[in-house]
Design goal:
With 462 residues, the chain is an alpha/beta fold. Helix content is 35%, strand content 18%. The protein folds into three domains: 5-206, P-loop containing nucleotide triphosphate hydrolases (Rossmann fold), CATH 3.40.50; 216-377, 3-Layer(aba) Sandwich (Rossmann fold), CATH 3.40.50; 385-460, RRM (RNA recognition motif) domain (Alpha-Beta Plaits), CATH 3.30.70. Strand 3 (103-106), helix 5 (112-120) and strand 4 form a beta-alpha-beta unit.
């Protein structure tokens, strides 16, 4: 039984806001870490994505914050820009009842100049990626002398991405007298050495990450060649018809090859990896999340920060090296009470990885039987939505309500049920609409006006 947030010694404004957000009972990770965090202790927490860890460290950061001191008091490091944006968004939501708090994101892939301008105006909390934070420190545009709380979010992925030296450089410029909170989905050996360097007398909290067999159905298929795996992916997608599927590959090159193969086979598939331009990555994530792409092929690192409410299936193109990474991957499906499916491909030589996993079944001796090759005669299903991109965003004062109004008002209105997610970025906006009304929706925005002016719009394909 989890305890209510009201059991915690939080500022009244934070508790009131948590009530309005319907955050009543704490999740397991929040219940185990928040009392320690609020007590000022260093904490190392292992918990999977979706466990409520952002609020676990976020409430601690906001409780300790002195708004009247306009100094950078907290630094939160994230492996990717997507995750940093997500964390900053959640913090702003949690801080709504406390006025004049300034939270700034500093990430790579964004222009450097405007960030310098924002820093010149000051901030209370910085959320950013290690590379960009280190660049600001090197150029003297960022000072961390007043930091009281240092947070590492998804520390395992920062180490996977090779940020070890950069992290050490940043830590050297943060006061030694501080609170350090380190959150990680998995706990490889490298985390131990990082913790030893950055924390003092930290308490380790681990939340059970095993998934119930009745929530996630796991299947294992023996596949000896790359081509076998490609065909197996196609057969599973055609046979089981998951609405959306995340395929994990070990390398960037593999993600491109798998996505290209599935695209050629007629699926709405896209690749996601670190070598893509930021604009392209944003677009890919938006399209997968809004239902206009049904298959996303990604590396572990790129998939961090991916916020999908309901994911039907996960395919492990190769078995993960670490059992905890496997658990973390498959934990992206079967959420919010929904059933999920996880398919894993393995070759004979990967047997040692399977033996390290705590599995109810014996994949080595009794692999699952793949769907018949006859399913290859079927046509691939199409993603239910299409995405329109509008060349106007926050900077042009465009809001989601303006876009929804333009589509559902006037002549030949589109039913609101046919409009999906709307994402408004700084200079552009994306709206998902049912595929069968995409042409009509395009014409409505093309011929109509948003904020009293015309904007260019296009349907994103491919």
């Amino acid at each position: 039984m989890t305890a209510p947030f009201s059991d915690l010694p939080l500022k009244p404004a934070l508790l009131t806001n948590l009530n309005t957000l319907n955050y009543t009972a704490m999740t397991e990770i929040q219940q185990k870490t928040l009392p320690l965090v609020l007590d000022g202790q260093d904490v190392i927490a292992q918990a999977k994505t979706g466990s409520g860890k952002t609020a676990a460290f976020g409430l601690g950061v906001l409780q300790a914050l002195q708004v009247e001191r306009f100094r950078i008091q907290s630094l939160i490091l994230c492996p990717t820009r997507e995750l940093a944006d997500q964390v900053a968004q959640e913090l702003r939501k949690l801080a709504r009842a406390i006025h004049n708090i300034k939270i700034l994101t500093l990430c790579g892939g964004m222009p450097f100049g405007p960030q310098i301008g924002s820093l010149a105006h000051g901030a209370h909390i910085i959320v950013g990626t290690p590379g960009r934070i280190e660049e600001h420190l090197r150029k003297g545009t960022l000072k961390l002398d007043d930091v009281q709380t240092l947070v590492f979010d998804e520390a395992d992925r920062m180490l996977d991405m090779g940020f070890q030296e950069v992290i050490d450089t940043i830590v050297d410029q943060v006061p030694a007298q501080r609170q350090t909170l380190l959150f990680s989905a998995t706990y490889p050996d490298e985390i131990d050495s990082l913790c030893a360097r950055v924390t003092r007398k930290a308490t380790l909290v681990q939340v059970e990450s095993a998934h119930q067999a009745d929530v996630i159905e796991q299947r294992f298929y023996r596949t000896e060649s790359f081509d076998d795996r490609l065909q197996m992916s196609q057969r599973l997608l055609l046979n089981d018809k998951p609405m959306n599927t995340l395929i994990f590959c070990n390398t960037k090159r593999e993600t491109d090859e798998v996505a290209d193969f599935l695209k050629q086979a007629g699926f709405d598939a896209l690749a996601l990896h670190g070598d893509m331009e930021q604009r392209q990555r944003n677009e890919t994530l938006i399209r997968f999340a809004n239902g206009s792409v049904s298959v996303l092929v990604a590396t572990d690192v790129a998939a961090r920060g991916l916020d999908i409410d309901k994911l039907d299936a996960v395919i492990n193109f190769h078995i993960a090296k670490d059992p905890e990474v496997h658990t973390h991957r498959i934990g992206r499906t079967g959420r919010a009470g929904e059933r999920g499916r996880a398919y894993s491909f393995f070759a004979e030589k990967e047997g040692h990885k399977l033996l390290r996993m705590d599995l109810a079944q014996d994949p080595l001796g009794h692999p699952d039987t793949p769907p018949s090759a006859e399913v290859l005669n079927q046509s691939p299903f199409q993603a239910p939505m299409a995405t329109l991109q509008i060349d106007g965003g926050k900077k042009q004062k465009v809001r989601p309500g303006d876009i929804l109004g333009a589509l559902t008002g006037g002549e030949r209105p589109i039913d609101g049920k046919d409009v999906g997610k709307i994402n408004v970025l700084d200079l552009s906006a994306y709206v998902a609409v049912r595929r069968n009304v995409a042409s009509q929706a395009l014409k409505k925005i093309e011929n109509g006006k948003l904020k009293g002016r015309k904007f260019r719009v296009r349907r994103i394909r491919g």
